[in-house]
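pasting input
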Amino acid sequence: MTDVEARTEGAAGPVFAYAPAPESRDIVHLDAEYGLFIGGEFRPAATGRTFTTVDPATEEPLASVAEAGGGDVDRAVAAARAAYEGGWGKMRGRERAKYLFRIARIIQERARELAVLESLDNGKPIRESRDVDVPLAAAHFFYYAGWADKLEYAGFGPSPRPLGVAGQVIPWNFPLLMAAWKLAPALAAGNTCVLKPAETTPLSALFLAQICQEADLPPGAVNVVTGAGATGAAVVAHPGVDKVAFTGSTEVGKEIRRTVAGSRKRLTLELGGKAANVVFEDAPIDQAIEGIVNGIFFNQGHVCCAGSRLLVHEPVAELVVDRLRQRLATLRLGDPLDKNTDIGAVNSAEQLAKIRRLADAGSEEGAERWSPRCTLPERGFWFPPTVFTGVSQSHRIAREEIFGPVLSVLTFRTPAEAVAKANNTPYGLSAGVWTEKGSLILWMAQHLEAGVVWANTYNRFDPASPFGGYQESGFGREGGRHGLEAYLDV
Amino acid sequence: MVPTPLAGPWSLDIVTSDAALRKLLHGLPGVDQVGAEARAAALATRSIKREAKMWALEMAIAMIDLTTLEGSDTPGKVAAMCAKARRPDPADPEVPPVAAVCVYPDLVGAAIGHLAGSPVAVASVATAFPSGRASMKVKLADVRDALDAGAQEIDMVIDRGAFLSGRYGQVYEEVRAVREAAGSALLKVILETGELATYDNVQRAAWLAMLAGADFVKTSTGKVAPASTRPVAVVLLAAARDFLHASGRRVGVKVAGGIRTAKEAIAYLVIARETAGEDWLSPTALRIGASTLLNDLLMQRAKQLTGVYSGRDHFSID
């Protein structure tokens, strides 16, 4: 260039390393012990049993939480039934809406606290809990509050009626958001709920229970029973439950379907996925790279609709993989409470072991494994962002849901081949398409067997948009007008 | 990924025909508007604290092209700005000088005398700034005028009318002609992205300027709204990164217009770091065209050092 370069060369200084910018942990006050939320009150489990929930980033215990047994589930279902028959089910929609609007507003008021809590208990980066989980949870309550007095216009006949008591079992990947997805439509439609949060992430559901108290929700309309698999099984099998909604693994989903078979219970399942993110040669490459990153590394890949299989058009395969590697080198892994963290902790030791097992299988089957240079913290559960290239459809990492930050890259030559490979999975929850050609987007969307197809974006959620799967990814839809159907006798 | 046309087996006139340039520019990967804006918004949430903030504040000061481009400019106004450019904070000699002052060609002479012996360069806008609506003869005379008065850097504008009507060859030739006229002076090419309508066009105009020999591609004149935006910076820095990859030549990016706060300036540094890489974190590769920004940077820097905000009147208004 010119002499400007010489003049200013010395001014560059050290590289621009971001200093730690942690959100304050003190925003959340945690009690030492938490009880079950039944009939509008917190109480210990009848058996007195408890379990400990830990911060996956440090393995430090956060709180001791009651473990609900069969008797507790009985009481919760009875409380829900009493609330349903005692008024909630017959209440005018516009009255129910007031409670839901109130819950939504309190979630917004306590957003910062909930975000920190969620990051502590789950391990996800504060950036995501603050910008995605909590705002979307509030948005779901706002959205369904709006439906509560308009159910006869939802397209399900002139007088759709609630089902009764809903038993809802939710996973650990989006603890608060999944609670909102379950509770908001159920309550709006006039049902009462028994919610079972995941054993590794019970806290935000309990805070949501506090919020229900604060909103003066009639006692028993929402009950929260914490515990592990046995508690969830008791909720699902309980004869007093009219409707079962489950989000989680396909394995447990199959078990639940067997349990409720032959009963009057309605069932919706939102299960696993092995989504294809399809990048064509004419894709907006930089934005596609962002979409790939967001598709698989958002929430450490603990996302049922994660874009875990990248299908990339052969003419741009090398370019895309190169760019992806450059981009991954800028990802920041570490303290979930640091506002600049992109990749947080894996939620549990058990999940970490599963991710490791499947990633090792990828290496053993001959795929090429790559991770950016990054230092993993010594304590806690961590897994680096990982990309496998040279993956075939027959590899386990192309077929099984890893539920971690592991991307399998496959290539294709024609749109037909892309569709064939994308659909060649027992799942069918979501897919992504990247191309500047509108007609190809429409063609792909018609042919992809997936509940959600994102075009030139990925992992975008909105309460007005229905979400749900094909095949072993489950059935029923959550979100939107469609999400009401699961909670109405239509 | 992108062919390097100047190194190709073709003769230059074929490469620079409208059709050939169109093929090249329209063959670049598209820019998705929603995605580019989402990326810029995500980068804006980076939280820059403590030593990182201090470093960024001082780097931003060193990257400033301190600018006055008003019809009411006078030698007196330029003299005051030059004093500020050399020593932004009279109370603290640790504050680095800015990169350059930027004025109209007729005031280059006024600036030169006040910057003698300092590392601050004199930049001049030229080529019928801000509209670019003049004959090539006038534009080149404008450039020579600035250079004769001693300008070390030329901020030219492209002919947006020619660009939008697809006369890419004309835009290319104009930049090349100015490049030749400018000689060893640093050439910044103002794309006026607020008039280019789409991010695809921003990317194409940037490539056109880089191919024609720009040292910097610059967002705006400051006379058109919107001026610099964060998504445009994302697109320009990505283009500069790709151009380096394709040609081996590093081109800088200058964001200009409407950047008034330290927070915004730091957001641009973050975008540069995470889009193009750390090599763009230098006044040789990133510039910020601004005037009032400097005082906010000084105020935030003083806050970092002392823990308190001084009043506005502790910083000179020039």
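fyi Chain A touches chain B at residues 1-5, 7-9, 11-21, 127, 131, 282-288, 290-291, 319, 330, 339-340, 436, 456-457 (CB under 8 Å).
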